[in-house]
Structures are given as structure tokens and as C-alpha cells.
Amino acid sequence: QLLDNLEFQMFAGEIFGLVARNRKGQKEMVDLICRNDPISLGSVWYDGNVVNSYAYSSGASNKVALIEQKSHLVQGLSVVDNLFILREGFRKYFINEQVIFSQAVRFFEEKGLKVDLEKRVENLTELERCFVELGKALLSGCHLIIVDNPANYLSQYELFEFQQMLKKIRKEGISVLYVGNHHQELFKIADRTALFSDGHIYKVFERDEKVLADLNLSTDLRAHLEDHMAPYILEWKIMSTENDQDAEDDGILHFHTVGVGNLNGLRFILHRGECMTILDKENKIAGDMMDLMTGKKRCRSGWITVDHVTYTQKKAADYLDEGIAVIPADGVNRLLFLDESY
Fold first, then answer.
1. Which pLDDT belongs to residue 211?
2. Residues facing 305 on adjacent strands
């Protein structure tokens, strides 16, 4: 019910971008690509064969790998154990660790995957973890890799390195379904890009329609290419205030040149009735802000006010009593009692 006449196709060796306006139907779509669960209408083809249809669903898994913010590696084990031993079809009773380690080193060097294979999984950086999951997918013979919003958990440098690797494996005939939230991010890497919303694809931008990120394009050509996106973009009207003093008076949350961790003199005012988005390009400050608002850290410099009253670490420790709700990234598992009713 969450997928509405969904229809698209991908080609071998293609990076297909999916701009997701919302997540409604996205998980169901990814699940259907990975596993052949029952569907009411239509059919799913993979690698040239019908693997699922309204008439028959086997429930079997397809050779598809998903790389997302959640790790799919087993913590507490080495990278090599995750690559070889925890692989479907591995049936050896006696394991020569030196042999499989040398095989892993050779394979990662051939693919250009830069990972310290002597690390335990829990000590990997986010980029290394993505490279390990990518290497595991290639070892398993996956022809399709689904990448879900890597900009949410990789820094700008890490994102660039990961995208370069995706372009490299594309040349080997591996296809990539790249899901993101912003069209300009996807236009830089994808061969074709689709607009996905509420379980339906509204438009597929072919190669000649994309807004390319080439700075050598003329201003007129860039404006012409942006026109293709115009019908699908809503204007974001920002509320204006009479003067700076009015803005200060209307502020419910105020960061006064706050410094702690990766924050270095952060200043902003959140007004009443306003929704403010902070673009954390390096993916470094969200944790520090969350720790400040919940009392796990205190300001090294500057201060925070809520309703024009200083928000101390003691008050932050009882943030609910201060009228502040905090929703973490993993809100369902951390905030809800799954055995209880709503």
C-alpha cells in the first residue's frame, strides 16, 4: 500500500540516483529489491530474470547489498572474519587466519579499498566501515549496491572518497542505487536521477537533463538546466523581523558563541513557531549539540539561553522538565517501549 504504481529500471554499470522527498515507501521499496516478499500487482526483474510477481513470491533474497547509517557488520570481530567467515556458503571447519588475511589484503588492494584490515570492526571509521561493507558485497557476487543517504554519516571528504569508489566499481558492471535528499548531490554522481515521493516516481532526469556540477558551464546553460528542476521545488519563505532587537526578543533558543568539542563560536537564534535546519556538512557538530541540550556536556566558551534564561548543565540534565523534547537518530528503539501500546 505504500508503493504507488512504482516503475523504474536500472542498467548494468549504472549509478541511478533517487531523490527522496520523504521516506514514505522508501524502506518498502528497498526491502522488495533485497527480498522477494509478496506483492499485489506488477513484477520485479533482477539480472535479466523475473524474481518476484503478483502471481508468485518465493521470499528468497537477491544478491543485493545495502549500505546505510546502520552497520551490517558484526561488532567484536575482525574485518577479515566479517568478510570471509560470516559469509553465506562458507563451510570450512579449519580456518587458516594467515591465508584469509593475505587474501583480504590482496582483494582490497586490487579494488583500491583503503582499510586497515587489522582493526576490529568497532574501531573502524565510518568511511572504512562503508568500504568493508562494499568489499563484502563484491566478494559475495552482488551486482547491485544500494547506498542510503551517505551524506548523513560521512564528512565531505569521506563522501567524496566513497563516491569515487562507487564510480570505480561501476566500470566493472556493478550497479548502484544511490538514495539522497538533495538533487545537486545526486546530479554530481548519478547517470540518471529520479524524484521519489510517497512511494511514487514522478520524474526521471536523463543524462542530458541533469544539472551538472561542472563549474565550467556558462551561467545561461546552468540557469537553463536548473529550469528542469523548477516545477518540483517549493519555495522556502523565511520569516522576517523588523529589527535585530525584535529578533532577539522573539528567540526561544539562543546559542551565544558556543564552543565545545567541534563547536567553535556557534551563534544562532531559534524563533517561536520557527523550524530551523542546520546543515552539518562535516557531520561533526550534531552530537555536540545533542550533548549540550541533554546535559552530557557543558559549554567550554559562550552560553545557551532558553526563553532568555541561561540554560545550565544542571537544567539540561532535566531537559524534559525545562520543556524541551529531544528526538535522537534512533528514536524508535531509544524512546518507545516496544511491548507497550501507544
1. 44
2. 254, 310
Residue 57: which residues within 8 A CB-CB, separation 6 or more? 36, 37, 38, 39
List, as own/partner pairs, every contact residues 304-313 make where C-beta atoms lie below 8 angstroms and the sequence separation is at least 24, other chains included.
304/253, 304/254, 304/255, 304/256, 304/258, 305/251, 305/253, 305/254, 305/256, 306/252, 306/253, 306/254, 307/252, 308/251, 308/254
One-character DSSP codes across 95-144: --HHHHHHHHHHHHHHHT----TTSBGGG--HHHHHHHHHHHHHHTT-SE
Query: How many helices and strands in the chain, by DSSP H and E?
Result: 11, 12
Give 148's contacts (C-beta < 8 A, 6+ positions apart). Answer: 30, 66, 67, 68, 69, 179
Q: Report the SS3 class of residue 282.
A: coil
CB-CB neighbours of 54 under 10 Å: 11
pTM for the model stands at: 0.71
Question: Which helix (DSSP H) or strand (DSSP E) does residue 29 occupy?
Answer: helix 26-34
Q: Kindly list the distances between the CA atom of residue 24 and the CA atoms of 17, 146, 276, 304, 318, in Å, as whole numbers in the listed order.
A: 17, 17, 22, 35, 34
Residue 193 in contact with residue 162, Cβ under 8 Å?
no
Do residues 300 and 259 touch, judged by C-beta distance below 8 A? yes
Please state, in angstroms and rounded to a whole number, the distance separating the CA atoms of residues 102 and 185: 37
Contact 182, 150 (CB under 8 A): no
Backbone angles phi, psi at 53, to 5 degrees: -160, 170
Q: Please tell me what DSSP assigns to residue 85.
A: I
Model confidence at 90: pLDDT above 50:
yes
pLDDT digits 0-9 by tens, 214-254: 434 445 545 555 666 777 776 655 555 455 555 556 789 99
What is the full DSSP assignment across 184-196? HHHHTT-SEEEEE
Distance CA 265, CA 323 (A): 25
In whole angstroms, how large is the CA radius of gyration of the chain? 24
What pLDDT, on the 0 to 100 scale, is given for residue 44?
95
Which set of grid coordinates corresponds to residue 312?
545550565
Query: How many Å apart are CA 123 and CA 171, to the nearest integer?
Result: 31
Q: For cell 551563534, what's the residue?
A: 267
